[in-house]
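SEQUENCE AND FOLD
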Amino acid sequence: MNFGIIGCGGIADRKTIPGMLKSHKAKITAVEGRSPGKTKQIARKYNIPKYYTTVDELVNDKEVDAVYIGTPVYLHREQIITAADAGKHILSEKPLGMNVQETEEITAYCDKKNVILQVGFMMRYHGYHIKAKEMLKNGELGQPVMGRAQLTCWYPPTRGAWRQNPEKGGGGALMDMAIHSVDILRYMFGKVKEVSSFNGTITHDYPVEDSGIILLRFDDGIYGICDSFFNIPDEAAKGILELYGTGGSLMAEGTISQAAGGRMVAYIQKENKGYDAQQNRQGITPKDIRADLKDLYQSEVEDFIDAIENNRKPMNSGEESLINIKVIEAAYESQKSGKTIRI
């Protein structure tokens, strides 16, 4: 399938284009960027035959079957509508829109135009996350009780950084990073019914939050914790995923990330011998979990292509993205009101 890349810097250059090129199912035929020099440089770097400086030029290229959008959030709506009008299927970076209303409009418009829409919550394709979901489904952790997902980095004030501008990114640490953690816990546990949050700016001087914790309650009574900060050094935060149940736990490190690496260990209670046995930590032997680890961005684009070929919703559909942004908006509302918000 022939792809056109809208916004070829940043994440597109670092991760998505290399991931696409690992797949024999995808071919990149054109790239677009506002800077002619940089766009031409990217085209040469990856041996892409054509480059454009406007979205209209790219979507009107008859060789392009689908587009990947790797631009700042405030540009997504206009660019997605332009691509949908041209009949192109769309893989867009997250968040899909600046808010719930915009995300609803985007999703409805793509449905109206009958184009497949996928959103870049690529961590669902991590081999360890797929394995963890399988273990939960099989009852290996007993009754699920709680999960925690951590995505944190050091992000100091940077001139021109759109993620630090609420008018361009829609929010800060919650909108940019916690939304991934919300998505992974939803992938594991299902429907969120209540949201509570503390979030704000405590270290840096930009107008979006640099700190945030989101508490979730799922339909089955399961609890979730998502912690995302822009003020903790990258190497001090390990991209942790923790899943707990009545029969044990799964502890993953380095999996809440852009790379298909890390490690996951299971602590499973083979037999519940009562309070004393639990107190003495008997009957639990740590077990390293094995999983098929594949480039997340390659897996993402291959699921997208399969969805197009079979006219189905991809795993990370517009509707899934809409639920995630509803949770994030509820977190902001909770901070402002001091109340738990029902979804």
